Amino acid sequence: MTMKLAGLAGLMVLAGCEVPPQGTSAEDVARFQAAVASIGCEMVGESDYLPVELQAGLTRQQATDLVSFHLATGKAVELESGGARLVVGDCTPEPAA
Q1: For residues 25-50, average pLDDT
Q2: CATH code (residue 44)
Q3: What is the pTM of this model?
């Protein structure tokens, strides 16, 4: 069942339907993005997750699911340190000059 849901979620992303992870909403995504921007756009460790969870009103599972969602949809990139950096909204990188 879990594999079917994961596969369905992957197909929806590929089809352009960016459906937030189960148990989250579009509003959660917006609050998550704002909270991550407020801490410098990177989600690496406990010191990043705790303030984001508190600001956005999310559980740890929801926060990790949203990081995975942003990675899967190209709205975040993996860091060499093992974390992720959002590249959307206030975290959008400046164009190279």
Answers
A1: 97
A2: 1.10.10
A3: 0.80
